[in-house]
Amino acid sequence: MTQTAPAYRMLIGGKLVDAAERFEVINPATEQAIASVPDASEDDLDAAVLAARQAFPGWSATPIEERRAVLAAIADAIAADAANLARLLTSEQGKPHADAESEVKGMSGYLKGIAALELPVEVVEETDKRRIEVRRVPIGVVGSIAAWNFPLSLAAFKIGPCLLTGNTLVLKPSPFTPLATLRVAELIADVVPAGVLNIISGSDRLGPWLTSHPGIDKISFTGSTATGKRIMESASHSLKRITLELGGNDPAIVLPDVDVAEIAPKLFWSAFGNNGQICVATKRIYVHKDVYEPLRDAIVEYAKTVQVGDGSQQGTQLGPINNRAQYDRVRAIIADSKAQGHDILTGGGDIEGPGFFIPVTIIDNPPEDSRIVREEQFGPVVPLLRFDDVDDAIARANDTAYGLGASVWGGDEDTATAVAERVSAGTVWVNESRNLTPLAPFGGHRQSGIGVEGGREGLMEYTLAKTYFLGKR
Ligand code: TXE
Fold it and tell me: What range(s) does the Aldehyde dehydrogenase domain occupy (predicted)?
């Protein structure tokens, strides 16, 4: 009897391989197991790192035009399987099908955007005697850990710059959302030279093995600030380079001259898109007293029209929370607001199971020192906060250990931009929010991260400076 290979295998050294053990993946809308995936052992990790090491000399010497072509071919393979990938993404992540489709499309587009970037040689001196130039060289083998909120977008953030600059990669998806990423592994097994891009899945033990592995030269991580600190500590033992894209507690500042009806839905989606599970979701909304009541009422009315449900069903606009731990964390924050007697404008209750569903919850002007204001909620609950004076709003917006993103909303662009200049964050949006581009750096100030992803600066993170003093005779 012939045995068929299981679906969902890891990509190591150009081959699709299984592990001795597998673990189950849960659909957060049903809490049912939908598939099993390989649970990489330390030997599997060693094999992936070795494959990446062996591929490094050839890949780093490959002309950049060929590396661009490989990235474009990955992007095309993903685009050709978009419908299937989106279905998988909804089933493991929970997001509505339309959002999953745009994430797949976004992954493909991001890879093409990165593939078009340049890393020019910098000439710092040119005289009769000599020329001094700074070239950028790849670091070696990169280990990347992606989070469960945007499994494919985050994979693209890591794959694009890493491969373009001539490094090789061992990529680990979140144990909550490995399916679409392992499907990508299958799609690109024949597209990428063996060992250049390895994809391995594993349970909680795999992350610490990866970040302490002596054969890895750089770690790129997206996840919580607490885990980021642990990774920095373990990377310090061999002085691995690190890029950390961590949490945020992004403020929105709404000035008195806004068009309330126009911005209410925009602010809603800025906070509640992907169920609030976005590092740059708006997590605190500061509203000027002149427009506080009308904007509050407009957002609450809008919130009541939004359909929460299984992402695979027609009409669903918000799916479940991705996993049990995050569901419990968000519910604990809502329970704290209730216990403190905060005024809950909508939501706050339970949605009958199964599934990790939480109703859209909006809290009316809670104290600045409450958990819902101080902590990153990462779920569908947001506080509206009233201010009288813009200086006070800016001070409160900046009073956080985070510094990832922020937005300012106002009728007069110059006034709004002047406020944006005083908010301390890696990215500030004026009259829009959450948009990212492969052409510009994205990263956190303070405890929201170290380094950036995207743009030329994002490429630099995957390189080392090599300075040439070229004497002339
Ligand atoms: O992420 P964690 P979790 C935030 C959000 C959320 C919180 C927790 O606030 O509530 O993080 O989410 C690996 N060494 N964000 O628990 O703990 C492990 O594989 C090496 C923001 O899901 O950061 C795990 O799956 N690796 C974020 C992954 O890291 C380790 C997106 C993430 O774990 C490790 C997601 C270790 N010691 C959550 N410990 C964003 N920036 O967008 C764990 N891991």
Answer: 20-467
Whether cis (ω within 30° of 0) applies to the bond prior to 38 is no
Q: Would residue 1 count as lying in a domain? A: no
Q: Are residues 284 and 145 located together in one domain of the fold?
A: no
Whether the Cβ atoms of residue 40 and residue 201 lie closer than 8 Å to each other: yes
Containing structural domain, residue 45: 10-246+447-471
Counting from 1 in the atom list of ligand 1, the atom nearest the Cα of 325 is 16
Which residues are known to be catalytic? Answer: 245
Q: How many domains does the chain have?
A: 2
- CATH number, residue 301: 3.40.309.10
Specify the pTM: 0.97
Cα radius of gyration (the chain):
23
Whether residues 37 and 140 share a domain: the answer is: yes
User: 465: CA distance to ligand 1 center in Å?
Assistant: 30
Task: Assess whether the C-beta atom of 174 lies below 6 angstroms from ligand 1.
Answer: yes
Q: Is 465 found in the same domain as 419?
A: no
Between the CA of 147 and the centroid of ligand 1 the distance, in Å, is 6
With a 6 Å cutoff on the Cβ, whether 177 touches ligand 1 is no
pLDDT digits (tens, 9 = 90+) for 181-228: 999 999 999 999 999 999 999 999 999 999 999 999 999 999 999 999
What is the percentage of the chain residues whose pLDDT exceeds 70? 99
pLDDT at 3 > cutoff 80: no
Q: How far is the CA of 399 from the centre of ligand 1 (A)?
A: 24
CB 171 within 8 A of CB 197: yes
What is the distance, to the nearest Å, from the Cα of residue 414 to the centroid of all Cα atoms in its chain?
Answer: 30
Is the distance from the beta carbon of residue 103 to the nearest atom of ligand 1 less than 6 Å?
no
Asked whether residue 233 falls in the same domain as residue 184, the answer is yes
The closest residue, in CA terms, to atom 36 on ligand 1 is 208
Are residues 18 and 46 located together in one domain of the fold?
Answer: yes
Structure confidence by residue, pLDDT tens digits, 215-268:
999 999 999 999 999 999 999 999 999 999 999 999 999 999 999 999 999 999
